[in-house]
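Hello,

I think I submitted the zinc ion job twice by accident. Can you confirm which output corresponds to this input? Input:
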Amino acid sequence: MRPVTNWVSVVLDLPLGGPFDYRATTAVAVGDRVIVPFGHRKMIGVVVDLPSEPSYDPALVKDVELVLQDIAPLSQSWIKFARFAAEYYQRPLGEVILPALPSPLRSLAAYQGKRAAGGPVARLDKRRKAAQSEAMQSVVPTLSTGQQAAVDAIGASEGFKAFLLFGVTGSGKTEVYLHAAAQALARGRRVLMLVPEINLTPQFEQSLRARLEPVAGPEGVAVLHSALSDGERLRAWLSVQRGQARIILGTRLSIFAPIDDLGLLVVDEEHDASYKQQDGLRYSARDLAVWRAHDLNIPIVLGSATPSLESWVNTQKKHYQRLDLPDRAREVTLPTVRLVDTRRLQMEHGLSPHLITAMRERLANKEQVLIFLNRRGYAPALHCNSCGWVSQCSRCTTFTVLHRAHQGRHQLHCHHCGFQQRVPKACPECGDQDMQPMGRGTQRIEEHLAELFPEARVLRIDADSTRKKGSAQALFASVHAGEVDILVGTQMVAKGHDFANLGLVGVLNADAMLFSQDFRAPERLFAQLMQVSGRAGRHSGHGEVIVQTGYPEQAVYQALLKHDYTGFAQHTIREREAAALPPFSHQALLSAEARELQTTLDFLTTARDIATTLATQLGSAEVITLYDPVPLRIVRVDNMCRAQLLVESTHRPAMQQLLRHWIAELNQDPSARRLNWQLEVDPLEI
Ligand code: ADP
Ligand code: ZN
Ligand code: ZN
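Support: Only one job matched these inputs. Its output is below.
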């Protein structure tokens, strides 16, 4: 009998090209992982097609070395999803598919050599212990009318429908997700819930497990996020792929989980920028979730107190259905907001007398206080009082940030390239020793607060204080346990947390974000202020928010005073429409970096010329705007100079078509090989 010959198209994790054709002499299916020779090495790839004949001379086609059968093939519907993501974000399919797998499943070493006996899946299964359920019984509250209406609407939807759950902070959106999820599980379907940052919301996982494990079983809940170890991730991923996990909770990467039978998708805090991946495949997990729900013909719930303007406009166009939760669930009022005009005030270490007095009262009343300052470190820079020298990074065009390091010693850190150095004993310019911290970061505020309120227990939560795995969870647990009186933190403390006893929120230095060039800055600032304000008075009511600002008349602050998202959105949408900015147009960003700025500008100019010609050839010149290449605001990072070119269009298909041709030409262009460049579709920051 002749051996079977199957032609297979295989994608590999390579930045260029593919799929690549191979010959298989054993049975193979679309979605199988295979080991194939590539150049001088071997790689693990995924079969995405079984063509009837190879795309080039069969004599040159190499053989598949091994078909890996330790897991079931990836499903057709999942590959279709990956294909959409690759096409939409203009990346090779292999760069989507392979990184979506847990690393042991795509690492050759895991399948070769002595240690590889059986492969990573077999090894894991051997070690597998019965999962233990940590769920206590939890109390299910009676839903409010608004919550019930939302749950009913989601449950009644047949096929694809996008809901925007627009609920003020503390309105009980989580409860709606849990009920909607339980409905989907009861129908035998599975649920994917996305949250912006899972290690910050252990409470979410807890209530999810407590409430849904009884329905889904102890192995029915899987959690996927990037802080898992390889083994943990593989275990969770396998339970998803094998259908054991019925409900999957995860951060943005879990949108690529291989789930069949999905019945509901939930994206909590849908406006959150963490849904955007900022390197490699620069996808928006929220946008992909909407596509996936549409493709699978199932409902999706996007929840937020401050929806992205993209989603808001979609409700206005009736593409999405709005579900409103205008009141807090616990029958408490939203906090009162006070703007303290700092222009005429004598401040004490950056704190206004109003804030200090309010803090005293709350602390005397045994309530917790949150001080929000979105700037980590001790001070944004070190400054020489004699000559005006300011600490700067030698590799980047930025200031280095003063940090309090071990044993109270100070260091200078660059937040862009990671460079760290000791504080110079004397000014490098003039030799004077009178150098002072300039401005304030969370560490310095923490220090002041400890002096000002010696009786109070002060805790700082930011990226520096939570570097160790699990430490954020422990710190938040101590806040919830009432072991902290004053919490100081960056945006890490602003999101999601249901603090029971927090009465007062003080916001320092929000103005820093007010005058950014990025057209989305006011939207981001407003969302952040609403979020952090929403931490006050969640259980007892009578919460207060004090915002220190030199610009109280700004629209952002005026809207915040009234908790007026709708007014703010209307105002901002009008501005965007007038300027034809997203969501009234679509953008893509070509960025490049090289040692010399001129190299990047030259490349982008060439790229712009290519795009201009293409747009004319494709007949889309009228609907596409190509801007001039410009250097980035922080032009040099880690000794690389950066510039970008913005493309804008009111017509998405025309834009997609242009980008496809453009990428293909750029990949061929010799000048493109001399530097790093990338194309980002729907950039969030420009
Ligand atoms: P959101 O995510 O909308 O900010 P949460 O889901 O955290 O709000 O809910 C806020 C608080 O209200 C939580 O402590 C939650 O347990 C409580 N809660 C939610 N729904 C109800 C309800 N129907 N009755 C009483 N309390 C509720
Ligand atoms: Zn000096
Ligand atoms: Zn630097």
